[in-house]
Specification:
This protein is α/β, with parallel strands linked by helices. Strands 3, 4, 5, 6, 8, 9, 10, 11 and 13 form a nine-stranded mixed β-sheet that branches. Strands 1-2 form a two-stranded antiparallel ribbon. Strand 1 and strand 2 form a beta hairpin. The radius of gyration is 33 Å and the shape is rod-shaped.
């Protein structure tokens, strides 16, 4: 029982006029009659009583009509849902991100995406960058905002604006009185840093910054995430580097100062595995279009 024949049956039932129904359907009258006849043959009974002057539904036709309408409505709804899914307007989107990404564009982009595509169910997961790589590789996430370079084979990336690292130090420290702090002046100062395993690239660049200034960092504690680092600075344990995003949020007893020469930039990127699903592609496009 094909949908086109059911549509023909419904139109004839609504008009009770084969000629008028044929015109609405852009069919010849013999072609319409043939479709109705095939439908009747399939069901095994007449659906219409018809003569030259009169067309009426039989009891069988009247019984079929609501089911035919419901079937076409379901098919129409299914087609629309399939179209919207193919366009990325429905479905599930699993987004991963690092904690540092929440101090930048991620909250704004997620909020904008959900407003534009309310029928896409968004699941969010915060992890460190290596864990996000593993989750992408395991197909546990569709897309992630993380920190390149990536070390997991088979992942694709799109670069995003990075964030400059600035010095977080106690407000009572003598260097806090300066507008900028020279890297060489950090010699011998207690320094906090994230473990290399969490971000080997940025760790190496921070160490290289010290070496370029002719000094070695006096690392007193490894700590992650950077929000915890800022808390330890507030407690007077030492000083360390945080992103400009974290520095925009005031914290008691912590001062934030640019370095001279400027501190390294923490890179951000979108990462994914394989071909992006339509909803994920829409999210990637919206994030890449976000103002830097």
């Amino acid at each position: 029982m094909d949908m086109r024949s059911l549509a023909c049956f419904i139109t004839v039932a609504d008009t009770l006029n084969f000629r008028g129904a044929a015109q609405q359907l852009h069919l010849t009258q013999p072609a319409l009659s043939a479709r109705i006849q095939n439908l009747e043959d399939e069901i095994g009974t007449a659906l219409f009583v018809r003569d030259r002057r009169h067309v009426a539904l039989t009891a069988a036709g009247a019984a079929l009509l609501p089911h035919a309408r419901a079937a076409l409505a379901r098919i129409s709804a299914g087609k629309e849902q399939a179209r919207r899914a193919a366009q990325g307007e429905t479905g599930l989107l699993r987004i991963g991100f690092t904690l540092l990404a929440t101090y930048g564009m991620v909250p704004h982009c997620v909020r904008e995406f959900r407003a534009r595509y309310p029928d896409v169910h968004v699941e969010l997961a915060e992890m460190n960058s290596p864990s996000l790589e593993n989750a992408l590789a395991a197909d546990a996430l569709d897309v992630a905002v993380l920190h390149p370079p990536l070390y997991t084979p088979g992942l694709s990336t799109a670069s995003l604006p990075g964030e400059r690292l600035v010095l977080a130090l106690p407000t009572t420290h003598r260097l806090a009185r300066r507008k900028t702090v020279a890297v060489r002046d950090l010699a011998g100062e207690p320094f906090l840093i994230a473990p290399r395993g969490v971000g080997p690239s940025i760790y190496d660049r921070v160490i290289a910054m010290f070496h370029d200034a002719g000094i070695s960092p006096h690392i007193v504690q490894e700590v992650t995430p950077m929000t915890s680092l800022a808390a330890l600075v507030s407690a007077g344990i030492g000083m360390g580097l945080v992103t400009a995003g974290i520095a925009r949020l005031p914290r008691p007893d912590v001062a934030y100062r640019p370095l001279r020469p400027a501190g390294p930039v923490l890179p951000f990127a979108l990462g994914w595995r394989g071909t992006l699903a339509p909803a994920a592609q829409r999210f990637v496009d919206s994030v890449r279009a976000w103002p830097a």
